[in-house]
Specification:
Layout: E1 2-6, H1 10-23, E2 29-33, H2 36-45, E3 50-53, H3 62-72, E4 77-82, H4 86-95, E5 100-103, H5 108-119, H6 127-136, H7 151-161, H8 166-173, H9 177-191, H10 196-205
Helix pairs in contact: 4-6, 7-9, 7-10, 8-9
């Protein structure tokens, strides 16, 4: 079994490796990548059974990375491990093909249990995430407004709500300011809002900010 840890923090990667080596009894080979680009290169060259993916990578949006990984290797099992709480990205990552979602403050034994489940081809869904997935199956009229946004729109919305300027968002997402401005207009229209202040209030109310 070959596992690839994708995280831009060396200390986090080393910690995950130690937890897995001590908690997983099956023989495993654990490799690591510090960026999306490095992950794609390694997967293309070597192939892996399981990927532990952080969705906050320096060179590429994690959701987009997940989507492209699944296109590249449809059978690849991906466990998302991130600092972002379930309210922010869990449902979206499961929809995009992830086999599970854990926050980095999860206990070591929970991480090991999640990896073992994913190694066996099962999904690892916490009880709270199961409730969110059930809620996501409701009609659009009953869904929270942010569930109507595309993944890219949602990412821009979170950045706007965190107080970032259009130029900052454009730089981080490698888009033009005009394109980000267009996304902002779409977001406000879909959510029935008129200003960034309303987005901030909404994001705080629904716990969408770190």
């Amino acid at each position: 079994m070959k596992i690839l840890i994708v995280d831009d923090h060396p200390v986090v990667r080393e910690g995950l490796k130690q937890i897995l080596h001590s908690g997983v009894s099956e023989p495993v080979v654990i490799d690591e990548a510090g960026s999306a680009r490095e992950a794609f290169t390694k997967i293309a060259q070597d192939g892996y059974d399981v990927v532990l993916l952080d969705i906050s990578l320096p060179d590429r949006n994690g959701l987009a990375t997940l989507v492209d990984l699944k296109k590249m290797e449809p059978d690849l099992r991906v466990l998302v491990i991130t600092v972002h709480p379930e309210e922010q990205y869990a449902v979206r990552t499961i929809r995009a093909g992830a086999h599970g979602y854990l926050t980095k403050d999860a206990a070591s034994d929970e991480l090991v249990a999640a990896v073992k489940a994913v190694m066996l081809g099962r999904r690892y869904i916490t009880e709270s995430l199961a409730e969110k997935l059930a809620s996501a199956l409701e009609t659009k009229a009953e869904k929270p407004k942010h569930e109507l946004l595309s993944n890219r729109e949602y990412q821009v919305m979170c950045m706007l709500a965190s107080g970032k300027k259009l130029s900052e968002i454009a730089r981080e997402m490698m888009l033009s300011v005009k394109t980000v401005s267009t996304y902002r207009s779409r977001i406000l229209t879909k959510m029935g809002m008129k200003s960034n202040a309303e987005l901030i209030h909404y994001a705080l109310k629904h716990r969408l900010l770190d």
